[in-house]
User: Fold these one by one.
Assistant:
Number 1:
Amino acid sequence: MGPETRRGRYGTVVASLVAGAAVWEAAGHVASAAFWSPLSETLESVLDTVRSGFLVRQILSSFQLYLTGLALAILAGAPFGLVLARVRWLRVALENYIMMLYATPMVALIPFILSIMGFGFAPKALVVFLFAVFPVLYNTVEGARSIRPELVEIAYSFRTSEWRLWCDVLIPYTLPFTMTGIRQAIARGLVGMVAAEIFLSPSGLGQMIMMGSQNFDTPGLLAAILIIVLLGVALMDFGRFLENRVAVWRGYNR
Amino acid sequence: MTAHTLAAARPVTNGSALRAWLGSPLFLKVAAGAVLLLVWEVTVRALAPAYVAKPLGIARVFTTVISDPQFLAAAGATLGAVVSGLLISLVFGTAVGFAMGRVDLVERGLRYYVNSLFATPMVAILPLVTLWFGYSADARLAVVVFAAFFSIAVNACDGARSVPLEYLEVARSFRAPPRHNLFDIVFPSSLPYLLAGVRLAAGRALVGAVVAEFFISIPGLGYYILFNSRTFKHSEAFVAVILLVAVGVSFEILVNWLTRRYLPWARRD
């Protein structure tokens, strides 16, 4: 790619972002203040929350919830998926149920969690966990199914120890799939986090959204949504980056 | 695990018919299902308050709930919104995605917006949508479209970009008009991507409809779950969850089947 086309590409992207900002600003001046607010007022609202330290507090609180749920999901999903990769009968027995839970809209369970566990941190972390664990598990099991039986047989005929079999066959073959699952879990966990913060006890960024809408503070509402959008984009890019890191050796067998 | 399933784990070597049957995938799956239900029933009985849903309780209310006109109306409202939202997203999402995939300028102009709205959790926009559409069924439809549109657009764009160049070159050398390019080359060759997009979109649309109903409190499966679990009728509420799971799973199976039957060359991802 020559410098000429690169500059052209960069130019259109900047132009599209500037145009988007201009439309946002103009819409804010045309529409009623209850429906939409100009970009300038929204950014001012972001700055206010930064200055008062409120934004940092809410983001930290959200992150604590998100990371707890996500970490538990990965710590539970990946090892269990690996066990299913090794123990064939257990995998055959459970894979349909895992697929079913993977397709279950977990939001539907939030009212049950609320009425059984009430308010507090644990039920919210459980929501993030439930959103995130099944993508990890489902994709790890998919990876387990893709291990060619010949590899395990060859390992057996060379009298491989169980430990070497895990290190040299099972984990390298399923890890790329697990990473795909983790990428999905990163995105779904964020949905779970916001849902938990809105529908269970209000906290973090979800609370900022609710405060904006209940106080008819449209700039505040848009500011909170903007921050969540940016967070979503950053997390999605991070997930893709992680997935591509391991995709290098996935290429061999796909 | 029980002794039965452990026995089934051993490879069938001495050809006994009973052993073969115990090791068959169907038996394993059914046995695992039974064990899971049993564990659920026993733990809830032992540890949780009486109102918490358990398999026998759900089985007891199941037929009454699914013949209850109120439940059927709720299911119809939710699924109707999901289907119409998916259709709207399919038409407009495909159009936007194809435009992005085939026209470089459109792609560069829209990429950041489509990608970042695709990454946005739809729960976050609920209050904004209720500001615009009020606490109405329109707001639910808007959330469903928001949830479904971007995954279809992103996949349609990938599909349109993956069209083999040779096909387009052949079409050009035969002076094919643009509509043939679009409907006879771009559309069929991006079908696998579109199906993958629809599969993703369907799951998100279902979630979108349910969260919208939680938030807006309009009749539907989500509200049915919310209302019944608040009044401690967890078994009744759980029947609605079962229906949602059944819809999600059957859609997944349908799309997989369609891909295998009509697009056998497409790799599943």
Number 2:
Amino acid sequence: MIARRTIAFLRGIAILTAFLFIGQFLHGLGVPIPGGVLGLIVFYFALSAGVVQLDWVDAASNLLLRNMVLLFVPLTVGLMDMVGLLSRQALAIAASLLVSLAAVVLTTGLLGQWLLPPDNEAAENGGAQPIRTGRESAS
Amino acid sequence: MNAIAHPAFSVALTIAAYSLGIKLHNQWKWVPPIVVACVPIIVVLLLCHEPYAVYNRGGNLLSWWLGPATVALATPMYRNGKVLRASLPRLALIVVIGSIVGMVTAGVTAWLFGAPLPVVMSAVPKSVTTPIAIEVCRELKGIPQITIAMVLLTGVLGASVAPPLLRLVHVRNHHAIGAATGTAAHGIGTASLVRRSEMQATASSWAMAAAGVFTSLLAILLRLFLH
């Protein structure tokens, strides 16, 4: 049982890595979208077409997604090397960051609240029922 | 040869610091795990007088997994695909507008505060995921280090600020919250939603990917406009 779960996990990692390779390969051929996102798009279409089954990658995907913050830690630690560079333009950078963050969150959020169908009535607008996965409030 | 120079030490230290961050976050929701994770690492490096580059020999091993993790974002995207498909054209429109607003406000604000052109260009892609932002920054002749700093700060700040800010203006729609967080705060914002609600995370991961694609394409237009 444990062995089967481990194999399923490793298969998921292999599939995700293979699609990353496809994305980076296509990017190398001159597609102007970065390899990771290109891999994501191709993988999404592969799932839609049924080439890859969801349960082949579920365990691997969940581990990576639920702990994605861990993967950002080394880059964030890199801020310690940029103190001099940042302090010279600190005011412009901080202002740009705050204004833009607020503008994007408010524009996108309010447009979404206005344009997107309400969560509970998605069926009325699109004919599809929201899929409850039981993970909604997991944390 | 000291301990920190071993990649294994960096990886172990990083995972330990991240676990501490998650533990504190579970205790007090307002504590951002990434900030808690980074502080002990920076303290250790400063106390040992070790440069970041030495730590990053091991750090790189973890950063590499951002590639497969980006691909993995298709999984929650697909799982709620039927729900999203009905509103996908509207979501796309919202994310395009959000991306334009993000690029323009970031660039114009930096310019108004007297930043030189390379810094202005570094600010433009700051809303999208790190690997895309770096490439867009290079296309626009910005300074990648400044872009990385802004992307990470935007992500950290956005992950903790976006949900309360949206509550304040009565945005309660799961897809709207996801779209706003993914467009504004890329992977760090999305990661914070993954631990909270899959519907928000789906819209967020879709918006994050779409914002990355749209920003790359809009950057090509911006470059043509500048010449």
